[in-house]
């Protein structure tokens, strides 16, 4: 009598566990939902955005309840369906239309992360923060760690020299050097430390190699040209400067000295013509400058010059003579460098678009916004193929930067919440 009752109870428990595991397996194959799951009372919001983690003491139906999915449909999913789902995913990967999922959350900065960039060849990320530091993260270690990797990424190195926030960041094409721009008006050059450095070793002062001085205000944008081995910076002092970091008198040229176009907000070397840089301004203008003549060559079409079209970021299309701009008014615009005309304009987010990046093949555009989302677009037809809720708002700001790894399948986002997220 009693024994049979106990057996039945423990059997139910096992069945419940099996069902829970199966349901979690099924759910992990769904693309991440645009908004994080609602908090279950007495339980912190599970995961960070896309990952659904359930604590054992909350019945799984509660955690899913309130979502968009009808449990009736979920209950009918069988193991066979689960396999079909994973086969579909593999087929999609062949088409390079994979679904990106959050893999690592990098916690160590004390304040908003303003910029991030990947090492050209290694699974290594650099972040720059308003806390005045840069940090180096080795994702290889985390990828191969047996522990719960999501909780276990520590920076392997912290760079300290800026007084005040670090706002911009870029690396050389060989990954041997990196460069940072700050609120203090300096551009600092760093030697990349050994990627297997022990985080608890003594600080090596030889890592900082030189300081590029000349700007009189915050350095908002920084980019490196592998073709010319030159660095371009733009600053709140209204100038754009081209530097040769190896040279003892490093500043090669200065654009917009008379502040004729307002204050630059972003700068990028033009991929299709390495002798040009494209610069966006707070007036809403976008200009192409020639590095040889030091003159502006083309003014790309603007919708207005009263500053209502403030451009937060400009990037160069990786394969075509096109500049892509991210605007405060929620739009992304595509501009033809040859004709200067706008080819396409789209409302891309629910709040200001703060940052853009493309993958090296020219397949994807990734945008980040203060609406807390990272969006993935196909560059050819400019359609949104995925939206990931990545960060939480702080002081009405959410995402400051996004990066695509040049040679490995990683996307990273930098948050005002002091976190960096890695998607795979």
UniProtKB/TrEMBL annotation:
WD repeats lie at residues 106-147, 159-192, 212-253, 346-387, 392-424. One of its GO terms (cellular component) is dendrite. Keywords: Repeat, WD repeat. The keyword Repeat applies. Gene3D superfamilies: YVTN repeat-like/Quinoprotein amine dehydrogenase (2.130.10.10). It holds the Pfam family WD40. Residues 9-20 have a biased composition (Basic and acidic residues). GO terms for molecular function: armadillo repeat domain binding; calmodulin binding; protein phosphatase 2A binding; protein-containing complex binding. Residues 1-47 are annotated as: Disordered. This is Striatin, calmodulin binding protein 4. It comes from Nothobranchius kadleci (African annual killifish).
């Amino acid at each position: 009598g009693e024994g049979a009752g106990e057996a039945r109870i423990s059997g139910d428990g096992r069945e419940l566990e099996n069902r829970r595991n199966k349901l979690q397996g099924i759910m992990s194959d769904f693309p991440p939902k645009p908004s994080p799951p609602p908090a279950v009372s007495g339980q912190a919001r599970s995961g960070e955005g896309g990952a659904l983690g359930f604590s054992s003491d909350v019945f799984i139906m509660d955690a899913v309840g309130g979502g968009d999915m009808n449990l009736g449909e979920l209950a009918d999913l069988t193991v066979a369906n689960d396999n079909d789902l994973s086969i579909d995913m593999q087929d999609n990967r062949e088409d390079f239309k994979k679904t990106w999922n959050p893999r690592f959350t990098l916690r160590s900065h004390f304040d908003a992360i303003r910029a991030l960039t990947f090492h050209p060849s290694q699974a290594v990320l650099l972040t720059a923060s308003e806390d005045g530091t840069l940090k180096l993260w080795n994702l290889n270690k985390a990828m191969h760690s047996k522990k719960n990797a999501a909780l276990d990424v520590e920076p392997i190195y912290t760079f300290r020299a800026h007084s005040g926030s670090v706002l911009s960041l870029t690396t050389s094409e060989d990954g041997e050097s990196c460069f940072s721009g700050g609120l203090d008006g300096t551009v600092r050059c760093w030697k990349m430390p050994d990627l297997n450095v022990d985080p608890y070793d003594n600080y090596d002062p030889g890592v900082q190699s030189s300081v590029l001085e000349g700007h009189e205000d915050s350095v908002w944008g920084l980019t490196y040209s592998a073709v010319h081995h030159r660095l371009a910076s733009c600053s709140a002092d209204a100038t754009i400067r081209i530097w040769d970091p190896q040279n003892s008198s490093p500043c090669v040229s200065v654009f917009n000295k008379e502040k004729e176009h307002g204050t630059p907000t972003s700068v990028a070397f033009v991929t299709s013509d390495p002798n040009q840089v494209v610069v966006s301004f707070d007036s809403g203008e976008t200009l192409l400058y020639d590095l040889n003549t030091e003159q502006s060559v083309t003014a790309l079409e603007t919708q207005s010059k009263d500053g209502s079209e403030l451009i937060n970021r400009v990037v160069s299309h990786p394969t075509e003579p096109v500049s892509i701009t991210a605007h405060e008014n929620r739009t992304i615009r595509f501009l033809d460098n040859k004709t200067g005309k706008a080819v396409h304009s789209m409302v891309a987010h629910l709040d200001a678009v703060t940052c853009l990046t493309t993958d090296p093949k020219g397949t994807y555009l990734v945008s980040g916004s203060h609406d807390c989302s990272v969006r993935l677009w196909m560059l050819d037809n400019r359609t949104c193929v995925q939206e990931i809720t990545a960060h939480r708002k702080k002081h009405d700001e959410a995402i400051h930067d996004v990066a695509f790894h040049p040679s490995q399948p990683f996307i990273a986002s930098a948050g005002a919440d002091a976190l960096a997220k890695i998607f795979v």
